[in-house]
Specification:
The protein has 190 residues and is an all-beta fold. Helices cover 0% and strands 57% of the residues. Strands 4, 5, 6, 9, 13 and 15 form a 6-stranded antiparallel β-sheet that branches. Strands 7, 8, 10, 11, 12 and 14 form a 6-stranded antiparallel β-sheet that branches. The radius of gyration is 21 Å and the shape is elongated.
Length: 190
Amino acid sequence: MGFQNCYCSDKPCSCRPSNHHHHHQPEEVIKSECLAFGSLYNPNPIPPALAEIPVVQGALVDFTQLGPFRRVLPDVATDSITVLSSGIYEITFGVNVLQVIPADALARVYVNIYINGEVDQTSSASLFNSNNGTGSVSHEVTLSRTIERFLNEGDIITLRFSFVAGEVQTYGNASLVVDQKFKMKCHVFE
C-alpha cells in the first residue's frame, strides 16, 4: 500500500493510504519520515593506530564526531544523544578495546549503555583476558551490543565503562547509534 498526503513535523505524523479499498478503524504505522536516528563516533586515524584513550572505570566513552541525525540531539561535548520523541529505539554501540597484559596478570572491562545516568543491565559487553606466560600479551577486540528499548522524550543515552580491573587498557574507534523503530502517535487515517 502506498501513502499520499503525508506530513511529518515535531507533531504527530498523519498519512492517508492510496489505493485503500477497505473501511476500518485507524491503525498505527511506521513511516520513515516520522522516525528519529542519530550517531556519535570516535574513529581511529588512517592509517589505523592502536586504541590510545585510557579505559577508566565509570568514565564516559569519548566521542569526537557527529554522524547523521534527525529528531535527536547528538552532542560530542557531553558524549550523549538526547531523544526528542517517545517510541521504541534500537541502540547499538561498538568500541575497540586494547589490553596489554604482562606475565601472570589479567584484565577485564565491561561497557554498558546508560539511560538518564542509570545503567541498562541488559546492554553489557565485556572482555576478560589473562596471561599465564612469561612475556606480555596484547588483545584488541571490538565490544558491541544492540538492544531495543522504549524511550521517552528527553531521555539521554550515553556509553560508559561500568567495570574495569587489571592491567593497562585503552580504547578507540567507538560508535553509538540510536534508531527509532516505532513512534507513538503516527497514524494512518481512512
